[in-house]
């Protein structure tokens, strides 16, 4: 088992997961199906939240009680969360520029933007994974265990799994193929990347889940499982070729929600922690006495194998087809690619 889903709160934990999964599906549909929805979600809402975040930190610097006790100020102080929120939002805006042909979104060279923004998002997580691995080593030298307290007062357990998963992330960047194979759907609802088929999506989901499991353990039930499955299910069932847009939309929206309402995950009946916390709880004021990192190691190895297998498949196909897999599409024979291209505007 990956998470501690048992006891009196089990039904609340499952309900919370369903609410997050369904909410992300619905919000993604709102954002992708209408220009007004996309503008509200990724231009207006982030602008308002930016003013809110700045006000919190200005207020805290001035000693204002409301700011010093604000949920966001107390629980979401890590550089990672802000970097991820704005990087994901930048991706959503760039994808809308391509989809609606705004400004440079009409230019052929701007088709490289999706690859670049996804690579940046992956690198942000890789750096965070490596940071946790280093902090774990430092804790081992100082305390004799691998527990270290993050800036958000969450006990993390850094080890070799962080290094393995960081390597998986680096490989995953080069598992993105057909960088220029970006299209707009005929109905103008989606930016499509047809060559990003199930091969990449599976490798990415395994890597990213392990990232959250390692570094956002108290959030992984939601930002690991629900958040990753929402765009994957949409791509599998009704939005072929639109996975990367689905992923950016749901990620940005989730980051906004989590940044404003962190206690939903951290201190409510919906809170779900992984089996890592063998003491049965996570309290910043109490250093854990035992750890169960088995699943961190297992998932890290699975993610690495998946990404190596995906990379090997890409190399094999590139050689067989005599193509550069980054300037040309190489999964053109797969059903997912063909279905996505049927939706594409030519």
UniProtKB/TrEMBL annotation:
Name under which the protein is recorded: Uncharacterized protein
Keyword terms: Membrane, Transmembrane, Transmembrane helix
Positions of transmembrane segments: 12-31, 38-59, 79-98, 110-128, 160-184, 191-207, 219-239, 251-277, 297-315
Keyword Glycoprotein annotated: no
Keyword Transmembrane helix found: yes
Domain of life: Bacteria
Annotated InterPro entries: DUF5692
């Amino acid at each position: 088992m990956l998470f501690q889903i048992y006891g009196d709160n089990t039904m609340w934990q499952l309900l919370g997961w369903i609410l997050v999964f369904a909410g992300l599906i619905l919000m993604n549909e709102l954002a992708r199906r209408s220009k007004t929805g996309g503008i509200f979600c990724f231009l207006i809402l982030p602008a308002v939240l930016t003013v809110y975040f700045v006000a919190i930190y200005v207020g805290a610097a001035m000693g204002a009680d409301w700011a010093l006790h604000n949920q966001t100020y107390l629980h979401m102080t890590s550089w990672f969360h802000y970097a991820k929120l704005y990087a994901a939002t930048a991706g959503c805006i760039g994808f809308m520029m391509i989809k609606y042909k705004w400004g440079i979104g009409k230019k052929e060279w701007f088709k490289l933007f999706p690859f670049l923004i996804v690579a940046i998002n992956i690198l942000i997580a890789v750096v965070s994974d490596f940071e946790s691995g280093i902090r774990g080593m430092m804790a081992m030298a100082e305390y004799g265990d691998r527990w270290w307290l993050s800036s958000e007062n969450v006990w993390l357990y850094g080890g070799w799994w962080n290094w393995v998963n960081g390597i998986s992330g680096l490989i995953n960047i080069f598992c993105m193929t057909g960088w220029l194979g970006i299209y707009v759907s005929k109905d103008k609802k989606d930016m499509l990347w047809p060559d990003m088929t199930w091969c990449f999506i599976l490798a990415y989901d395994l890597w990213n889940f392990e990232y959250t499991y390692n570094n956002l353990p108290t959030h992984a039930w939601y930002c690991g499982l629900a958040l990753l499955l929402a765009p994957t299910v949409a791509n599998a069932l009704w939005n072929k070729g639109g996975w990367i847009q689905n992923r950016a939309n749901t990620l940005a929206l989730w980051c906004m929600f989590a940044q404003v309402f962190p206690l939903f995950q951290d201190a409510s009946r919906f809170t779900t922690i992984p089996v890592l916390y063998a003491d049965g709880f996570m309290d910043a004021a109490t250093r854990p006495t035992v750890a169960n990192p088995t699943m961190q190691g297992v998932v890290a190895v699975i993610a690495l194998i998946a990404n190596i297998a995906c990379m090997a498949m890409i190399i094999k196909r590139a050689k067989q087809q005599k193509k550069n897999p980054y300037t040309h599409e190489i999964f053109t024979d797969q059903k997912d690619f063909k279905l996505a291209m049927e939706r594409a505007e030519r």
